[in-house]
Batch of 4 targets.
Target 1
Amino acid sequence: MDRRSLLTAGGTTLGALAISAVAGSATSSAATGDGFWHGSEQERRNLKTFDELDFDVFTNQKWARLGESHTRDIRVHWPDGHYTDGINKHIEDLKFLFIFAPDTNIRVHPIKMASGDLTSVTGVMKGTFTRPMPLPNGNTIQPTGKTFTLDMATVGHWRKGVMTEEWLFWDSQHYNTQLGIA
């Protein structure tokens, strides 16, 4: 995979459609007196696992723990339209994001939804472009020192408490603009 392709092509329209599809099918949730919608126990566990995935495993680069939320043969769809198979490839791709922005983190999920074996979570990914970004041809893009705040969405398909397939969405043009490389 061309590492630069991780940063190319948009996905916000698809992300909005995916979130709408999950939200529109959320029939297994029940309203409670606290004003929030609460799903089944499994839906709550999947969302809690996803919080742990982004807030601790991803943010702190605890790659050995990714198997707590992903199957060994997970298929991951990226914003540029390509997909990868297998947890090891997914870890390799995630590590790339930290090469040039080692402080990359996700600390909030403003929207979380679950319906059966599907979850949809929005997050805010932040970081600073402080180290050279390697390119496939062996060249690098020198750091700009610019910070980024990127709205993103993830849709996950779960089986027995782990994701079997994951769709990642963010506006790559906005990301590249914030990095100072667009």
Note: The chain has four helices and eleven strands.
Target 2
Amino acid sequence: MKLVTAIIQPEALETVQKALVRHGVGGMTISEVSGYGRQRGHVEVYRGEEYTIDFITKVRLEVLVDDEEAEALTGVIVQAARTGQVGDGKVWVIPVDTVVRVRTGESDSSAI
């Protein structure tokens, strides 16, 4: 099993969610996160004063899938989230050793 994690723009969440549902994803976890990458934050002007915003609000999306689905799922997320602008996000895949559904005790692939 693999955990596919994506950090994307909040504006892209609905598009990515719809693409994942069309792809057949049955569940996902979403978190609001803050951070920065190459863009290193940005400057905003409020009432004539400039403020540096170091951390930018992003969305963290996590989907647990079987090994053979990870690459295809990564492509779906990248295609749906891409705008071509700095800050579009990142996607990474990590191996998962064990998953257990708490309600039923099912484990591994049957728990996804």
Note: The first helix runs from residue 13 to 23.
Target 3
Amino acid sequence: MSSQQHPRRTPPPPGLVIVDKPDGLTSHDVVARVRRIMGTRKVGHAGTLDPMATGVLVLGIERATKLLGHLALDRKTYLATIALGVSTTTDDAQGEALGAPDEAALAAVTDDAIHTGISALSGDIEQVPSSVSAVKVDGRRAYARVRAGEQVELEARPVTVHRFDLLATRREPDRVELDVVIDCSSGTYVRALARDLGGALAGGGHLLALRRTTVGPFTLATARTLEALEQRPELSLDLEAAVAAAFPRHDVDKTTARAVQYGQRIPAAGIAGTYGVFAPDGRVLALAADSGAVARSVVVLAPA
């Protein structure tokens, strides 16, 4: 073997890696780092985080990338700091300020006004995403159109803010800072909540800081920094544990397990939505969904 060649690494087992994303990296940057750390090209992420945001980022490794589009990640929790007083071009601290703070408007931001504003943005609401979001407009991302100098007007869409709680208020000469916890449906833009709250209360607002603490069933408790992953490049959850954490479980007998591995339909389990099918030995075989009296495989994870 020449000095230029290196022995090929054995691919890692399939599963999920829960990363505590650092500030300043895109989700794609994190995927690139984890590909190198884990020694495989087969790495994907479920749900992006903006470069300025930190916290839970769910990555699929090897065959577990097939799970990513099916994971029940429809609820997310964030710790955020919102600045009232000035809007920015990106609705967050990375954008350019649009005008100067209105001191009279800021002085009128009472505690009662803050609670009323937060209440108006809680529950089932219609939200216009940030113009620099990843929402597609005629096939192109909104942020790409904005960077190209286009004016982008996005339509409001229904989202649910399950929890919007105020943790602390700080009153600065040029802004009012709010520390909040937000529990919301997938597709909710916390930047847009900051923009709209500031617009209602103080003539403008933007997001100062954002940390995602949960995505579906995955939390910071199982998340690791990239540095920790470098030291110990191992899965957070193997394939079986990942499916058991994110989906209802359906155990089948040997005969049914074999049918699943061949992609055949099996009797319905009577479980709503997508569920994991497990063999008698505990291996996960597939994700399946009932269709009348039978179940069909959504993804076969252990083909025959």
Note: Confidence is low (pLDDT under 50) at residues 1-7.
Target 4
Amino acid sequence: MTLHAPLRLFAALTLAGASWFAQAADLTVAYQTTVDPAKVAQVNGDYEKASKASIDWRKFDSGADVITAVASGDVQIGYLGSSPLAAAATRKLPVETFLIATQIGAAEALVAREGAGINSPQDLIGKKIAVPFVSTGHYSLLAALKQWNIDPAKVQILNLAPPAIIAAWKRGDIDATYVWDPALGVAKENGKVLITSGELAEKGAPTFDAWIVRKDFAAKHPEIVKAFAKVTLDAYADYRKDPQAWLANQSNVDKLVKLSGAKATDIPALLQGNVFPLAADQIAALGAPTTQAITDTATFLKEQGKVEAVLPDYAPYVSAKFIAN
């Protein structure tokens, strides 16, 4: 059957409208350069397939930048550490933590430059230490100084984003840094690790990375958030089933290198340096444990003058409802 011109135009407009509605759930996701198994799913387009949404993936250098983008509404789902998360919740940003991305171990560390005269923690006094402010690295640095009874005021703490840390390290402008890859790998080339976030966790200052979602987006598109969580957890399960076999697949390593900037030779140690919680662990964690961890982090940040107050309850900023049993 041949349509007359007006009918053809109406049909075209109807199809265009249907297409617009299909694309209305498109979202922007803020990711960082951390090394985790879900980066493979990201490269493979698994998130798009599972959610049936078009995703604009944007790379960010720090959680503070992610928070700014989420607050503005430019980003609907974002990856950030427990310290910027605590700061965001304290500011009452309308977000929910729907997934613990990783419990940080050796993937973040304090590294001192060879030749800077730093042979023990006390040698940090008077030295220049670079770290992205309000990041998990910043929280861990302050926690480490507290462990060593070093007044932060006696150390020159510089607020630099990871790319700037790499440049400053190569120029010899800084003596130490608390950071993650790829900057961590650069620093370790001619530096000495003084302490890792995993070691600090054992001393009572744990840090973690998380996925957050804007509450307005989650209310409108819970199925997308659930699909996002499932793809991530499936990737974790695939890795944890047999880490050695997973790493033996060069394609997996190449995809991590592509999105993280880490060296292929460092990938195994970086993966082993973190814990990637599975679904059952997530359901247990996304409640009182995470709420308490955020409260403890906010309390520490207030002691350091990084936030003005601590909320009486952080439970509204954590939810396990998007995790499938």
Note: Strands lie at 27-31, 55-59, 77-81, 95-103, 108-113, 128-131, 156-159, 176-180, 191-196, 208-214.
